[in-house]
Fold this protein.
Amino acid sequence: MPGYTLNLRCPCGFRKKDVWVGVTEDYLHLTFGICLDCKKIFALQCKPGGKLPTTCHQCGMKLLTPDAPGAWEPAELQQKFPATEPWLVESEFHRLPEKEAKTYCLIEDIRLLCPKCGKYALNYKEDTLWD
Ligand SMILES: [Zn+2]
Ligand SMILES: [Zn+2]
C-alpha cells in the first residue's frame, strides 16, 4: 500500500515537513490531525481495525483530519469527494462522469485549513512516494 511524505507550507509562515500519510505494509494507517486550538499539526496513526484519535492529546479539542468535511477547499470539489484526502482526489477523478471533467482544474486550488492562520491557505507537496 502506498503513501506519501508531505511537505506542508502556508504563506503565513506555518511549515511542517515530512508528514506521513497512507497505509504502511503492516497496514498501519498514517495521517495527521489539525488542532486549531494548539495551532499545530499532529501525526496520527492507527492499527488495522483501530480508530484514529479524534481529539487533541494536548488540549482535548476536536482534531480535523484531512478527509473530514471542511478540512480543505474548494468546497465545491470536496463535496464531490467526501471523506477523501486531497492528495487522493486526482486518482479518484475517473469515477466522476465525463461532464464533470471541468471540475478537474479545481485540483490546483486545493488548500488545507491552516492551524496557524485559520485560512484555507495551507499548501501540500508530495515529497516522496513510498511503498
Ligand atoms: Zn490541541
Ligand atoms: Zn497559515
